[in-house]
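Hi U.,

Before I forget, here's the chain from the pilot set. I'm dumping it here mostly so it's searchable later in email.
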Amino acid sequence: MSSVMMKVCPHDTIREPERWTELAMYLNAATGTELTFDISIDFPDFQDNLGRSGLVYANPSDTLDLVNNHQFTVLARPAGRFDEAVLVCNTEQEAVLAGINGKPLATVVSLMPTKIALQMLGKQGIAPSELHNVDLWQAVIGCIWRGECQYGIVYKDTYNGLSEQSKGMVKLLATTDEQVAFHSILVGPALAAQADALRAALREMPNDPTGKALMERLAITRWEPVSETELATMQALANG
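Structure:
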């Protein structure tokens, strides 16, 4: 078997990217595949190569794209981990979530945390006047700091990874807890014949000393299956 590319969401390779090389090597040893982890320098690079990959660890939006448009199959997702968002405001604003109502909201419009935050706000009858699009989650902080917007949405994992200085540039209003969107690991057509073996290897990782140690480094307790209902719920959120 020739080498097959493994891609990982760039958000998850900022720190210790070698963990994913080790996962590829672990799966190769367990299943006889020949995965090669190929790191992406940014999201355009990641997304340009998705369809040509054999195995992908993808964010919710890319998970849906791979399933809908590239004949990928979801193998599993990290148990108990969901994509969530934080809502932030200018440090001069009163930390009241309702202040967003009728105001522009800075965010990366195309990505799932925006949908998650808007769903939470909608449940409370809060609606921004418009969405002010930026290219990166970190850019939301700068947008608010410069006074271009008073309020913004940031992907929770990105916010948690910011320095204390960067966090101090904004005021935290709220954190979502919608539990409807998640990262997944998917197999593409190039490795379709190995899907069952890969799924089994992922499931058994906590029972293997090497696999368990690697999962601790990945901050994943175990891999769990993804139901059609969960995918449909995530798709409905994306379409909303």
